[in-house]
Amino acid sequence: MNIKSFYKHYHLMLLPGIVLLIIFQLVPMFGIAIAFQNFKIGLGIWHSPWVGFENFTYMFQLEDSKIIFFNTVFIAVCKIIAHLIIPLTFAILLNEVRFSIFKRWVQTVVYLPHFISWVILAGVVMDLLSLDGIINSTLKMLGFQPIMFLAKNSLFPGIIVSTDIWKEFGFAAIIYLAALTGINPSLYEAAEIDGANRLKQLWYITLPSLVPTVILLATLSIGNILNAGFDQIFNLYNPLVYKSGDIIDTYVYRVGLVQAQYGLATAVGLLKSIIGFILIVISYKIAYKYANYRIF
Amino acid sequence: MKNKKALISMMALVVLMTACSSNTGGTSKDGVGQASADSSAKVDPFKMPNPIEVTTFKSLSPGAKLPAGDTVESNQYMKYISNKTNINFKILWYAAPQDYEQKMKLAIASNDLPDVMLVDEQTFLALAEAGQIEDLTKVYEKYSSPLTKELYASTNNKALEKASYKGKLMGIPNISVQADAASMVWIRKDWMDKLGLQPPKSVDDVAAIAKAFVEKDADGNGKADTIGIEGFEKSLAVNGKAQRGDFKGIFQAFGAYPSGGVEGISNWIKDSTGKVVYASITPETKQALGKLREMYASGAIDKEFALRKDPNENIVSGKAGMFFGPWWSGGLAADAMKLNPKADFVPYLIPDAKGSVNTMMVPVSTQFIVVKKGMKNPEAAMVYANTFISAQRKVDPDALNLDFTVSAEYWPIGNATFDFADAVERKSDTLHKAISGQTKPDELNPEMKDLFAKATSDKANPKADLKVWSSYYGYTVPADLLKQNMNKVYSEFTANTKTMERKWANLQKLEKETFLRIVMGELPLDSFDKFVADWKAQGGDEITKEVTDELSNSQK
């Protein structure tokens, strides 16, 4: 009896969340139908003519689709790798700092950009990289030719990845810092007694203790392999770097919203979601097996 | 009695206006002008003989406010129309613009039309093709008021041509103000004086001045950071309405009107053989791109123009000495002046090699009043249009009692611009006459009175209040430039075709990338030829054929 009424409260508390989920996540899914239609706004979902897989065939025929797909995966993979390595390194280094006020200060400063939107940060980045921005001024002072960073296809993906890291690594490091504090201090004490120096401690204690966290984060991020970051790229790119910077999301935006080809845009988006879904299932399986991570 | 008086005074005004305005283009196809002089004696173009009810639906922005007590169905505009014309509009439904689109198209699809409504060009063509709307040719001949005719004459009858389908007038077209089309180059006069430069007479002059600004440190801050011509990512497009920061003025000096792959622009012009072609693939466009490429390489154009989302920042901050913009760019000049009182932007029009100024015009009409097929009193639409026009142009004295700060969307069938195609030039003339004392200030209409007051107060204390200055300045020097003879080019086709829906996005991307790369020196100029071939192969030829077919359909 007692237990039952106890659960009832919990279920009631869950209700608003479930309702929101149904309204904003489940109901809009019927819009997927648009991907199989020659959608006309005036006719709506109920009256637009059905075209089967025509939107998908057309998508694969598009010359651009290969480039866009490649760009998306390339940028996303670079971001995933960088997001694993850099915050980890940073967290380990910061953990070694003994002066705790300095440590806190660095931690705070470094994760501040996480809270600023890309609309603003893009302005900052553009200013830094402009022809008379700070980077080009330095280059000029050293006697190099100034470079138009944001107009170069060879540099654009690099800029996207590095600015994204700059924005997010402080925040990502928090997880590692938390994992670091979770390591049993007696392990270090024992190692010290055995004569291990700091490097050896890092190698034999810190890193192995972090492995489950790393695997967990790595596998979970596989689901993001098609998310290369719409708001960042949308605010930073321009027609000159479409070749290296146009990703699925920006393409869907331009084709779907600006050019009003709703059917095609929905088809592209749907394909993205399906691949993303499959990858998330796989990564969950991997995480379950190797990092003992489970949701259900 | 009162109505008759209004009519007479309006006639007098119209006669006056005809006297002032110059030629109305000798090419007017229909002899409507003379024929209706006697017929208007029989019919009243402003009033139906008996009260009638007319149904409509309309779009209404959520933000449009009404005075307390008024409703969409009963407000000053609705009452004005029903008093003046005997037409009682019954609004079946209204909706916010986007929802309106959908609901209206649904209504069209199920042929559930109201008696009268206002539609855009694409809908208009679809309705005309489907035979869902009434032929208004006779109604126009019989019922259009002299002022209405005068307005259409100011477009050289382009507006009526647009509203014709297979030789019949199927709708009453609106008229947009054409002044927005001209692209002037606004140059820092103070910098030109400082460097001893002459005003430009050609594109080469513009390039030379821009180069001098950059190389001779025109802003005098000792740093090599001066920009010649400022642009932005959409600079390589010729839009009907000139944009601040575009290169329309340069393209036009070569007789080129490319769309630059910018969303929403597609220009179709007649080539030398009279065939309709896509303006971005002409040899003139290649020539213009070549010149721009040369100017970019020489540093005359901002190196980073393609990365800028808007051109204003460097103009206002005083870094850039030159930009292309429409006649109303004085506001931007005023912003620059606010920071640096010496900044003095002066506009010029740049002619082509033969000395004539080419201008790709704004589509004369974008909205059409249409009447449902089989409606009993199709003349009601014309009577409404006549009355709406005379109220909007404030020639009906009773209209002066209306509060025009109330959104014009509350007019029975919604808002559309019906103005003289050359409204800016006309206002400029009136202003000049008032300043020189030829007309007394009391004779001006309220709008002109306000402009005149601003001009006089600025004269007493030049540029003391930049808001006052910028609000009348457009009607002086820039508007005077508009009065010279221009070679007016119209886009022959402004709607969409079936293949365009599918392939246009890709073609535009191709064009945008290629053009920017050519100008910025990443691709050789001759890659333009490859672009033309690719464009044709990837759907351009197909689309051109559709456009040609559709044009010949609507004309014959």
Structural summary, described in words:
The complex is a heterodimer of chains A (296) and B (556). Chain A is mainly α and 296 residues long. Chain A has helices at residues 2-26, 44-47, 54-61, 63-96, 100-111, 118-129, 134-141, 156-181, 185-193, 198-222, 230-236, 242-245, 248-258, 262-290. Chain A folds into two domains: 1-30; 64-290, MetI-like (MetI-like fold, Orthogonal Bundle). Chain A has 14 helices and no strands. In chain A, helix 4 runs parallel beside helix 8 (156-181) and helix 8 (156-181) packs across helix 10. The longest helix of chain A is centred in the N-terminal third of the chain and has 34 residues, at 63-96. The two termini of chain A are 25 Å apart. The mean pLDDT of chain A is 86. With 556 residues, chain B is an alpha/beta fold. Chain B has three domains: 2-177 and 363-410, Periplasmic binding protein-like II (D-Maltodextrin-Binding Protein, domain 2, 3-Layer(aba) Sandwich), CATH 3.40.190.10; 181-361 and 489-555, D-Maltodextrin-Binding Protein, domain 2 (3-Layer(aba) Sandwich); 423-485, no CATH class. In chain B, 44% of the residues lie in helices and 12% in strands. Chains A and B meet through helix 13 of A and helix 4 and helix 20 of B.
Keywords:
heterodimer, A: 296 residues, mainly alpha, MetI-like fold, 2 domains, 72% helix, 0% strand, B: 556 residues, D-Maltodextrin-Binding Protein, domain 2, four-stranded mixed sheet, three-stranded antiparallel sheet, 21 helices, 15 strands
Strand content of chain B: 5-15%
CATH class of the largest domain in chain B: Alpha Beta
What best-fitting shape of chain B do the alpha-carbon axes yield?
globular
Query: How would a textbook summarize the main sheet of chain A?
Result: none
Largest interface: A-B, 27 and 29 residues
Q: Tell me the CATH superfamily of the largest domain in chain A.
A: MetI-like
In percent, how helical is the residue content of chain A? over 70%
Cα shape of chain A: globular
> What's the helical proportion of residues of chain B?
40-55%
Q: Give the helices and strands of chain A as they follow along the chain.
A: HHHHHHHHHHHHHH
Query: What does the radius of gyration of chain A come to?
Result: 24 Å
Task: List the uncertain runs of chain A.
Answer: none
Biggest pleated-sheet summary of chain B: 4 strands, mixed
